[in-house]
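sorry for the late reply, my laptop died twice this morning and i had to redo everyting from scratch. anyway the thing you sent over, i finally got around to it. pasting the sequence first so we're on the same page, its 300 residues, then the predicted structure underneath. double check i copied it right bc i was rushing
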Amino acid sequence: MTSPRRFLVQTPLLEIACLEWNPEGLRTAVLAHGWPDSPESWRAVAERLALDGYRVLCPALRGFGATRFRHAHTPRSGELAALGRDLLDFVAALSLHRPLLVGHDWGARAAANACGLQPGVASHLALLSVGYGTNDPRQALPLPQARNYWYHWFMATPRGADALRDDRRAFTRYMWDTWSPAGWYEEAQFEEAARAFDNPDWAEVVLHSYRHRWGLADGDPAYAEDAARLLPAPVLTVPTLVLHGGADTCNQPATSEGKQAWFSGGYERRVLDRVGHFPQREAPHTVADAILKFCGPASA
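ok and here's the structure:
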């Protein structure tokens, strides 16, 4: 498979860096990465989808990689409504017609929120490693999951903010080392992903995202209407596939259980044995096979 094309997409607020495979594909799949990761996380999955005839686009989220805010005065918000709106702006800027939306972690929240804000925007939705309906700061949180979210609480403190800003590679490597079974990645993979964290806005977007998620920071007023539409979480009409690693020690598999009532257009959930928080990296062929089986070939 040839290397992906790299280009920039201008939206009202962002200049979004994007990787693209198979520009002439019959159907389009947009793959949104998570935290702490980068668009390259999708490489093996993207290559497989491209071989099956999909045009594959992997944008860098706000604050990551070569994506930049177009205006200095734009708040460096990481709120989840903003991520959903960014994805809708990306789809609109490229005039994509009902693409398949796939997301991991932050990217999964962005993709689900995009579908909640604009029903019909996607043909299918695939969510990796998160449970839907968990944007609410008032949500019930079992103690084992609260323990897993130690980094959320840590980043709400001045010490945690300093650790994120001053030693971002050590901070994020700890997540990679503890969220999945030992030995799952190679050093070069982490270094490739970590280059995306050198974005000048990365730390502020990340800190705001986790603080806002729990009601510890105000949101950007520009997203107030979107945020109101997403709480409580709307029922999604798009056919949805959920893939969750059975060995995920960030978001426990239980966090995506029992969500069928939130989906009216078809729903399937699979737990992947011995896979941790990064299924697209740890088991890319399994992930790609599941997506293709659920969504159908590009010629469909």
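Residues 83 and 110 are 5 Å apart (CA to CA).
thats about all i looked at so far, will dig more tmrw
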